[in-house]
Amino acid sequence: MRSGIVTGSVWATRRFVGLPGAALLNVRVSSGEDVVALDTLGCGIGEHVLITEGLAAATQFDGTPPIDALVIGSIDPSEPPADG
CATH number of the domain that 65 lies in? Predict the structure, then answer.
């Protein structure tokens, strides 16, 4: 599992039919590498996320093609918002 920041959306006008109805996001991980990850959570640009890769991502959806990277969580800010 790795963390990163969503830097944009990846638009694919043609997709494999068996791919779940979800967004493809460009995520910059801590190493500086850009990873395209499937997002079923609805995350947005600038959001800190957790992604899983490899077998853990590939086996999450029955009957779909293997997925290389999957957004599995949205990271909350390290400090709670101030009461205002």
Answer: 2.40.50.220
